[in-house]
Design a protein that fits this description.
Blueprint: H1 6-9, H2 13-16, H3 19-29, E1 35-36, H4 49-60, H5 73-87, E2 96-99, H6 102-113, E3 119-124, H7 130-135, E4 140-145, H8 156-162, E5 167-173, H9 185-198, E6 201-205, E7 230-235, E8 248-251, H10 254-267, H11 273-284, H12 286-308, E9 315-317, E10 324-328, H13 336-347, E11 349-350, E12 352-353, E13 364-368, H14 373-390
Parallel strand pairs: 1-11, 3-4, 3-5, 5-6, 6-7
Antiparallel strand pairs: 2-8, 7-8, 9-10, 10-13, 12-13
Length: 391
Amino acid sequence: MHFSSLTQRISGKSVDSWEVHYKAAKRLNAGDDIYLLSVGQESYEYTDSRIVDAAIESLKAGRHHYTPVEGEQALRQLIARHHQDRTGQIVDAENCVVFVGAQNGIYAATQCLLETGDEVIIPEPYYTTYPATFTSSGATLKSIPCLADEQFQVNVDGVRDAVTGKTRAIVLNSPNNPTGAVYHRNRIAAIVEICAQNNIWLICDDVYADLVEPDQLCCAASMPQADKVVITVSSLSKSHRMTGWRLGWAIAPKPLAKHFYNLNMCMNYGLVGFIQDAAIRALQLSHEITPKIRQNIDQMRKVLTDSLSQISAIKTIPSDAGMFVMVDIRGLNISGRDFCQGLLDQYDVGIIPCDGFGESGAGLIRVSACDTPERLRQASQRIGKYVESLS
């Protein structure tokens, strides 16, 4: 039977990067004591009970029927207010469309903005789903390496040099997954200016933005020229411990938001009501919940960084924010994929190789800081023993 060319664009090395994670998760579900440090969620923590209760009460009240395709008005108003408080950008509910998670919002932007013959510029290392997501439209991905020696800051000159008449979008993810880099204001401002001058869209994946202290964060949406070119995609997954609830959104110029509505009509036909009611409660409690989550993740990331830094044969790269720590294993003469596979098989620790995060991810591994301090230290000791066996 025949398959479309899309099936080739949504497969490949970036998808294969999850192989070790799936194997680790399968063993964990089977009862093995696995240190699952391969995914960005606080698996040992739970969604705030007040959010859960809001969902339960909503479900009992019958909020399980069709809802507005673009999302409930009350929720979109809260999202717009949350975005405006964080970035200063003046938006309202009509700028906002609710999606089944941020990944769905990024995919929607791809489908509404890009097509065959277009080019999209993405700094790397990048999140592993990006190649399949952005090339699914038929567009060509042009990656710009960000170097560890420069704290993985986005290379503005590289972005500017990559722009051609075919460039339709640039993608920024700050704080970055996997590197944890928080891009500097002057670099973000320069890229917004590049987009404004060349009529290029700037797609901002801001899912980790709430994990940065507000006075230390710069968002592209806060720039003076942002209104016509910036799309901000975010969610409650990291900031409110709601990874499995699958609720995200996109803030965009209103003409694009109308296209998002039409695409959502084809894909989801609205998100279930009781999930949206839980999201409303979550946003109402942001001032209580998010700072505690931010503080916890910062502490866990420090514990992990300090523990991994004691392993002399590898190089631990400090990160600015987020849920991950990057480790350089290039001195061990082993691929990231083989390293992660061997570590899981021999020491029951699941982490992710960065081979599928762009060419500059080769020889790097991503370790999640999402566990208790004691287990992070224990996992680091196991990584150290594995490194010693390779040396």
